[in-house]
Amino acid sequence: MLDIKFVRENQDLVKQAMKNRALRVDIENLIKIDDNRRKALSEFEELAAKRNKANDEISALLKEKKDAKAKISSMKDISKRIGELEPEIKERETELNKLLLSIPNLPHASLPVGDASCNKVVRSWGDPRKFDFKPLNHIELCQNLDIVDFNRATKITGSNFILFKGWGAKLERALINFMLDLHTDKHGYTEIFPPFLVNRASMLGTGQLPKLEEDMYKLKDDDLFLIPTAEVPVTNIFRDEILEEDKLPIYYTAYTACFRREAGSYGKDTKGLIRVHEFDKVEMVKFVNPEDSYGELEKLVANAEEVLQLLELPYRVVMLSTQDISFSASKCYDLEAYTAGVDKWLEVSSCSNFESFQARRANIRMRRKESKKVDFVHTLNGSGIALARTVVAILENYQQEDGSVLIPKALQPYLNGQERITR
How far apart are alpha carbons 147 and 156 in whole angstroms? Predict the structure, then answer.
């Protein structure tokens, strides 16, 4: 959420930021609503001060056993007006907050301006493998190796759900354990195992609601949502809390299943593992001092990159443009792994700095060590990394001419030394 004070003082900047996002936001109406709120609040505070002063005077008159009827009578109109102002102020604050919740974060000045075609590849690692045979896609490999049962997954739940089996299930589990060990043992994150259901306040705090509610799975009888990412429960650990500056930065990592309806995505990569409604992901979340957040973003990206480097998967790092970043992000890098069978670069990680946007919505603050001043922290999160697209990349890049798939060396200790997957 943007600070209304910041919006008032930087209207041209906010308007240009929304234009760069290709969004229309009525800033003038927002300011008008805030003006009316401020006017009503000012009148309320003035009348409340008068009432308090009059109450003191009435107490003094009664103490001196003097007639206080005139003073009490004069208070009736003030009390009546205060009673009228209270719901008016509440209504205007609700209206203002509703509008503020619908305005996305400001894109960082370093982002390319434009749509997804303006995304910038900032670096790449590894070379796509050259095959001396025609590589299969992951769907053919999964079926030939009998490691994913697409048809029975559809029978059990519906389309775009996954039923891993045998070595497919073992590979998924090995990847999760490998990533959690890397982030906790080497990168300094504390492991969290959060709930997979969250309340509306949590979804509002990280910015999924109200904008993306149609993309979420919501329980029918409770105002609870299946999480779209571990970012939601982990970020909300400190909702409505004040952290001490000397405790920052705080790094958390978590494995969760993730659930997304993907509303509006009909027809896009609907076969196989590329676009599914439930997938596993290891997430990294940071709570940091505002002065350090962009340095922390680069470290976050490096942590995600190391996963792909250890798996020896070719990838590229892409800085997203102003129209392609998420609602809550100020700056975002995507990591895209190359997949030989479908000949595509697939997003397997998204690393974002939200600055104070989520912290303001979730009321996550920090107390400065020296001044004791209270500020909003900066929050960051990144996939470290997401499945099942990483499984796609492994299967398609490590496939052999005989139909088997080699297992990356980094994963072999998690699979009892197994070196390849065969039928």
Answer: 17
